[in-house]
Amino acid sequence: MADDATRAELERLRSAVAGEVNGLEADLHAVFEASQDSNADDEHDPEGTTIGYERAQLTAVLASTRRRLADLDEALARLDAGAYGICERCGRPIPAGRLAILPFARTCVTCA
């Protein structure tokens, strides 16, 4: 059944993204811990990136990954409601190719 396969794939993706979120949160926590224990002036260090830059970059990647996790949760909710694969704007089916590339797509290509 297509819904079972779709659910399994969405849940697999959700699990993988949740693991990414956990890993990024741990990395960000480690950066915060490292910066608290150091009084080094890394802003003027010509070698490598600064702690502030690393923190900002990790924070941005974590926010993006959390959004992807929320998108997958919403896709699972749409699947439960019988609305998965239906464009939220025009009400037409979202092409399978689009869903294969972007499984949490809410709109068809025309409406996107």
From TrEMBL:
Pfam families: zf-dskA_traR (PF01258). Residues 82-112 form the Zinc finger DksA/TraR C4-type domain. Keywords: Metal-binding, Zinc, Zinc-finger. The keyword Zinc-finger applies. Gene3D superfamilies: DksA, coiled-coil domain. A zinc finger (dksA C4-type) spans 87-111. PROSITE patterns: ZF_DKSA_1, ZF_DKSA_2. This is TraR/DksA C4-type zinc finger protein. It comes from Dactylosporangium darangshiense.
